[in-house]
Q: What sequence folds into this?
């Protein structure tokens, strides 16, 4: 290190900077400020590539001669926005070391492979760690005829009525819950059709009451109005009742419903399906009128309201910057889909899904749930389905920054729900 | 993080309580040690950068929770951990049909109860099981839907097969509402030929001890001093042929590392012969008798086992791997770290588990221990004449007492963030126990500088950890 030249510099990136490079394009994200620098330029892209290379690890030696005016402007921008710095090489003996950010994907893959080895000893671990939320459709019978039926449940957890009538009997239900013994199950969601049409509902409720995990029962408000007393019975320690309201509402019934509800609101969550701005205002009106505390506003795509989604829900670059995506989030997005990870859906015809929008993994009664979890992990279809695997995200610089692929996208079969890449 | 000298200076001054705004406005340049090469503009730039980092929490002192706060037990907590224990385990017999030279109950070690060829008493074991099963029915049982390990240890457990058979049959009559038993056994395998049907039928998770090939396994000898390798591998073949499926799914191997084997060779042996990766264990280095220390060290490190395990050449005792994972905020290597939260809080807690959290272990003498891997002198209770004597208050006081002995050490220990030490592996007889893993501020600084300069010289080490 004796021939240090005063015209030599270290160009460094700070360790909180995330980089993504595709060809001549690159994106730098300052995870502390949320600011981004995005360029499409062969010369600068090459510079960032060099910085990012294994050899350099966020520290690149540059000589004064090598700094063109374009590079100089860029370096100035990097400094001004605290993405990095240019330091005289004399500040250190030899190349300084930066702990550059890196996800050990290899290790994570090894971890997965290790976990899914067909070993009994390890299988226990899989189930233990990889099942957190399970939705069980106990029946499919329902006397309503909602227009959103058979399409909303692809977008979010909701009741649905297929053409055929199915029902899980109490033994089959108990079998499923017993199979989950040994897992880190935290939440069970119970849905129908109309779960009140299930003969064994009271038994199921009593059975689940003894298990100290969170239980959520789902009902459409039309079915609730018919039997408010029964709905009250579903409440209790650790239980939640989610009542879905869709527009236009049957006026009188809403009134009747909330009169009945007002005294026993604890444990009840009211969810509004929002298809338009008008719906949104209506929902807010109802929430204020009845002073509802536990509410959810859930966008619903009805095939005709793409514009509403574009205007209000599509991701913008600005929103991404404001959301201050952390490195944990970025690395998570690189590995799995946080929305479906560790969740299973079991429909009344006994089919098991890692995500309801994808093909089923198998059937309860025929396959072991544990084996189906292994299958899901091996397939990578839902739990490990990341933006890097779909068009157009796979060629987009934001693929690890954008939120994980949502069920809306699967349902629309359209993955750029963003204002960024049209 | 690479820090410009001016930032370093600013941090120093800030820590001394200097009003930086004022000093910079007054152009008090000498204070900042700035030679002419860096002008005022530079200083201003780094000062705003300093403020940016500060806003983002960079120079915040991490919160600190001392040992006496982290580990202070009361009766309710002891009960809670007991109810939620992961495992119930039994020392089936203290007899063994092998004479492994490094055995934890052998000549190298002290601290265990005398080996007298005793067998565990079924009625006492049953009493303990009933006691825990009863507790498990409580609402304090939060680990629902988890398997509970039901484990048999020895000596060699299969020397007292009648107990195992009786206990398993009894356990199978118990219906726990939300948990299931998972039978487990660690065996030297010499009696496998006799009992494998039972083991397979009850779906035991089976761990077989074998140190590798015949040469590797040389310390594991029969009572007559002859090698045990041939007999054992014959039994393993029998088991494999009897139920290939069981062998594939339920059997694992444990190999102890010492001067007669080598991790990679051991692994290759098992991969080739059984298509399995063995669990490698170093020789336990606690409770070693003073007069045997030298001999022990030779066996342990004869050809430098330690280095072979960590496989970090030229790294002495600097374990950079853990260092990087603990102190670098932007590397992730496991899914669980991705799902867990951040860290600007130092919890001093040692590596010891909560009492009974991991296990409830009953010895042949009726002693109740929090685990089978600690010296038996730390009994926490008894089962005598079918009665469980376990005083939660006393257990709490015992643990609180140990931690109060250690708090002065651990609270100033710079390794407390990454401590893996089980305190039962320390010599707790003195009032101020020593810990071989302790490092003070100075040593920590030296270690940090050491690691960082090794990283500068050889960035490959970092690349290895982050998998680049
Ligand atoms: S209440 Fe639910 S299941 Fe019934 S028709 Fe409406 S959406 Fe379908
Ligand atoms: S194309 Fe995909 S990755 Fe790119 S901004 Fe849009 S949603 Fe995000
Ligand atoms: S060795 Fe110590 S930390 Fe480990 S399980 Fe036993 S008591 Fe707990
Ligand atoms: S290394 Fe030793 S001294 Fe340091 S915290 Fe752990 S037990 Fe305490």
A:
């Amino acid at each position: 290190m004796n021939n240090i030249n005063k015209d030599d510099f270290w160009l460094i990136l700070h360790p909180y900077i995330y980089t993504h490079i595709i060809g001549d394009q690159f994106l730098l994200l300052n995870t502390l400020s949320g600011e981004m620098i995005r360029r499409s330029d062969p010369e600068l892209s090459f510079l960032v590539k060099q910085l990012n290379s294994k050899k350099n690890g966020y520290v690149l030696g540059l000589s004064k001669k090598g700094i063109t005016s374009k590079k100089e402007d860029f370096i100035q921008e990097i400094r001004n926005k605290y993405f990095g710095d240019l330091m005289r090489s004399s500040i250190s003996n030899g190349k300084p070391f930066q702990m550059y950010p890196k996800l050990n994907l290899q290790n994570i893959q090894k971890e997965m492979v290790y976990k899914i080895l067909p070993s009994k000893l390890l299988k226990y671990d899989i189930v233990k760690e990889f099942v957190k939320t399970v939705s069980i459709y106990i029946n499919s019978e329902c006397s309503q005829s909602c227009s959103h039926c058979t399409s909303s449940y692809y977008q979010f957890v909701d009741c649905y009525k297929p053409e055929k009538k199915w029902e899980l009997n109490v033994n089959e239900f108990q079998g499923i819950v017993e199979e989950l013994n040994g897992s880190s199950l935290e939440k069970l969601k119970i849905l129908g059709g109309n779960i009140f049409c299930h003969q064994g509902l009271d038994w199921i409720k009593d059975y689940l009451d003894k298990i100290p995990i969170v239980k959520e029962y789902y009902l459409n408000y039309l079915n609730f109005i018919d039997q408010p007393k029964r709905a009250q019975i579903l409440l209790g320690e650790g239980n939640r009742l989610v009542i879905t309201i869709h527009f236009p509402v049957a006026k009188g019934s809403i009134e009747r419903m909330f009169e009945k509800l007002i005294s026993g609101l604890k444990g009840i969550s009211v969810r509004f399906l929002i298809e338009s701005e008008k719906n949104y205002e209506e929902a807010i009106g109802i929430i204020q009128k009845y002073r509802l505390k536990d509410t959810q506003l859930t966008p619903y795509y009805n095939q005709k309201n793409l514009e509403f989604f574009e205007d209000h829900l599509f991701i913008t670059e600005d929103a991404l910057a404001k959301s201050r995506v952390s490195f944990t989030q970025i690395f998570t997005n690189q590995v799995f889909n946080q929305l479906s990870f560790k969740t299973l859906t079991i429909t009344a015809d006994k089919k098991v899904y890692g995500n309801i929008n994808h093909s089923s993994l198998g059937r309860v009664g025929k396959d072991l749930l544990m084996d189906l979890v292994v299958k899901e992990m091996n397939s990578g279809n839902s739990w490990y389905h990341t933006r890097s695997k779909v068009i157009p995200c796979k060629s987009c610089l934001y693929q690890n920054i954008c939120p994980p692929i949502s069920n809306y996208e699967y349902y629309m079969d359209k993955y750029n729900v963003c204002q960024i890449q049209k | 993080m690479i820090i410009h000298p001016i930032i370093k200076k600013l941090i120093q001054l800030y820590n001394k309580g200097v009003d930086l705004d004022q000093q910079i406005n007054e152009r008090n340049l000498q204070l900042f040690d700035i030679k002419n090469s860096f002008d005022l503009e530079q200083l201003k730039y780094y000062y705003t950068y300093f403020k940016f980092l500060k806003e983002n929490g960079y120079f915040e002192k991490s919160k600190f929770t001392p040992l006496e706060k982290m580990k202070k037990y009361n009766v309710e907590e002891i009960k809670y951990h007991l109810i939620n224990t992961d495992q119930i385990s039994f020392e089936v017999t203290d007899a063994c049909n092998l004479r492994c030279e490094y055995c934890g109950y052998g000549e190298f070690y002290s601290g265990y109860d005398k080996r007298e060829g005793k067998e565990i008493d079924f009625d006492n074991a049953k009493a303990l099981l009933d006691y825990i099963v009863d507790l498990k029915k409580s609402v304090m049982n939060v680990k629902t839907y988890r398997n509970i390990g039901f484990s048999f240890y020895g000596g060699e457990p299969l020397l007292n097969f009648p107990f195992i058979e009786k206990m398993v049959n009894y356990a199978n009559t118990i219906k726990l509402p939300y948990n299931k038993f998972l039978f487990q056994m660690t065996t030297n395998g010499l009696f496998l030929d006799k009992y494998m049907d039972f083991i397979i039928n009850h779906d035991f998770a089976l761990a077989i001890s074998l140190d590798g090939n015949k040469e590797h396994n040389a310390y594991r000898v029969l009572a007559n001093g002859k090698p045990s390798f041939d007999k054992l591998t014959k039994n393993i073949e029998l088991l494999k042929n009897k139920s290939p499926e069981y062998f594939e799914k339920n059997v694992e191997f444990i190999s102890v590392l010492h001067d007669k084997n080598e991790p990679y060779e051991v692994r290759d042996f098992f991969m080739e012969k059984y298509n399995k990766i063995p669990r490698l264990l170093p020789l336990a280095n606690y409770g070693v008798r003073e007069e045997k220390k030298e001999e022990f060290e030779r066996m342990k490190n004869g050809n430098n086992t330690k280095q072979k395990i960590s496989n970090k050449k030229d790294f002495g005792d600097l374990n950079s791997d853990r260092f990087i994972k603990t102190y670098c905020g932007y590397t992730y290597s496991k899914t669980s770290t991705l799902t867990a939260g951040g860290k600007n809080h130092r919890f001093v807690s040692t590596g010891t588990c909560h009492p009974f959290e991991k296990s409830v272990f009953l010895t042949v003498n009726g002693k109740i221990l929090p685990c089978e891997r600690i010296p038996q002198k730390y009994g926490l209770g008894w089962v005598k004449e079918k009665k469980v004597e376990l005083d939660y208050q006393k257990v709490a006081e015992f643990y609180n007492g140990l931690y109060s002995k250690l708090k002065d050490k651990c609270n100033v220990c710079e390794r407390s963030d990454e401590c893996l030490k089980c305190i039962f592996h320390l010599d707790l007889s003195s009032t101020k126990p020593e810990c071989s893993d302790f490092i003070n501020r100075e040593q920590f600084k030296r270690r940090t500088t050491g690691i960082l300069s090794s990283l500068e010289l050889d960035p490959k080490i970092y690349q290895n950890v982050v998998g680049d």
User: Anything to note?
Assistant: The mean pLDDT of chain A is 87. The radius of gyration of chain A is 26 Å. The pocket of iron/sulfur cluster (ligand 2) is lined by residues A 387, 392-393, 396, 398-399, 402, 415-418, 420-421 (CB under 6 Å). Chain A touches chain B through 56 residues (CB under 8 Å).
